[in-house]
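Quick one, probably user error.
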């Protein structure tokens, strides 16, 4: 008999990237092996129905005045030139989440209390600063929260980048502990799934290791279509190397460091090393100017942001994934790259520092920009010269990504559900 799951994912959209895409993949794959009732925002209805999801979904929507408020604040704190002021966005958009949170509780609390579901699982928002009101109704029904992730600080050597990302507004985070129901959400949860070791430690400090039951469970998963085994090559030196960067062109992603590293390569290697940057954002103009300044127009290709069906092609034709983002608490693109058998060159800070091991890539300490650029160049040259190492890392990257297949992640999630149910019954 299938488990009955009340799955609360405010951001669940198959046509969007980041958290909405992760939420959708969790819902879609879980629905194949459990009796799932999804609760999500009405903004996702069109995309979900287009993907074939018609039944067992409840859509909730804020009143028109609140929707107008959200439109105004988004316009005020978002610009094409500077992107989104995220710390301010999270604060000012909280009333919209609060309405959704209350609406979920109002509509489903009685059903939960009457035992209509075996599990209540709240996934988004991912940031660990939001209460979930329906936890109060879960007196005899296990409540699962997460994966939650976030709070990763910027490296000290990158204060100027941190300022451009508006970290001077991070003091707003302190007010999360005063939100009604925030502390009880974590303390009453049967299990809190956490997406990185940093956030796991953070929650331990906030609530104490004995008051919250937690488990490390990366929020990111990989769709099967990303998995790609590279053809067997000889260990002889090849004639070229294709690098790939995928991500928003914003200050902290630091695509510019990959370009600067390319410029430092020995001339013979530089002329045969090619970098493709897939993405868009406020840093685009600066990146275009940097490419021209360093005379790398023949080596660097800058595309726009691409949908998944087109993005996969870029993963499959690349040799190495070069992603020098200095602050990633998640970083799904790294797992996608490893699934495509790409060794990864990354900066060791946050979740991606846990993803990439020494057998499948290079993880660089964020000591300084100069050090990172130098090390990226060294690692590119190493992989260009040593194809045997490149192919060994390629195989290791593929194997490293296998547990992140959504099918595998959902099987573990079902095990967590079962464990929580047994614990609830014995308590």
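Nope, works fine. Designed sequence:
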């Amino acid at each position: 008999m299938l488990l009955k799951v009340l799955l609360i994912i405010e951001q669940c959209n198959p046509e969007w990237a980041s958290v909405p895409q992760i939420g959708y993949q969790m819902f879609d794959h879980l629905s194949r092996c459990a009796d799932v009732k999804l609760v999500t925002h009405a903004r996702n209805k069109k995309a979900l129905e287009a993907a074939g999801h018609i039944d067992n979904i409840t859509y909730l929507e804020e009143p028109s005045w609140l929707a107008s408020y959200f439109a105004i604040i988004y316009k005020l704190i978002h610009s094409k030139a500077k992107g989104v002021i995220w710390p301010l966005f999270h604060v000012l958009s909280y009333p919209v989440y609060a309405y959704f949170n209350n609406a979920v509780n109002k509509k489903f609390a009685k059903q939960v209390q009457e035992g209509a579901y075996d599990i209540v699982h709240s996934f988004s928002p991912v940031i660990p600063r939001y209460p979930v009101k329906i936890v109060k109704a879960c007196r005899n029904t296990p409540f699962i929260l997460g994966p939650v992730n976030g709070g990763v600080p910027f490296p000290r050597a990158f204060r100027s980048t941190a300022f451009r990302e508006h970290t001077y507004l991070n003091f707003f985070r302190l007010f999360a502990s005063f939100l009604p129901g925030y502390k009880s959400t974590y303390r009453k949860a049967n299990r809190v799934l956490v997406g990185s070791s940093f956030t796991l430690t953070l929650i331990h400090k906030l609530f104490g290791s004995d008051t919250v039951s937690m488990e490390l469970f990366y929020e990111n998963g990989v769709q099967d279509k990303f998995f790609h085994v590279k053809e067997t090559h000889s260990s002889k030196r090849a004639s070229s190397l294709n690098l790939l960067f995928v991500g928003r062109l914003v200050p902290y992603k630091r695509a510019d460091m990959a370009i600067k590293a390319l410029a430092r390569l020995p001339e013979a290697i530089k002329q045969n090393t090619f970098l493709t940057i897939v993405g868009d954002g406020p840093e685009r103009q600066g990146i275009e100017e940097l490419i021209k300044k360093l005379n790398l127009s023949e080596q660097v290709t800058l595309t726009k942001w691409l949908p998944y069906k087109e993005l996969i092609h870029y993963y499959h034709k690349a040799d190495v994934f070069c992603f020098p983002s200095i602050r990633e608490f998640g970083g799904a693109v790294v797992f996608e790259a490893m699934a495509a058998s790409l060794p990864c060159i990354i900066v060791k800070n946050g979740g991606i520092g846990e993803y990439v091991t020494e057998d499948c890539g290079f993880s660089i300490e964020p000591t300084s920009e100069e050090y990172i650029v130098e090390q990226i160049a060294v690692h590119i040259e190493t992989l260009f010269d040593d194809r045997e190492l490149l192919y060994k890392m390629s195989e290791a990257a593929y194997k490293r990504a296998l547990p992140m297949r959504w099918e595998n992640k959902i099987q573990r999630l079902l095990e967590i559900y079962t464990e929580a149910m047994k614990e609830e019954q014995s308590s």
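The mean pLDDT is 93.
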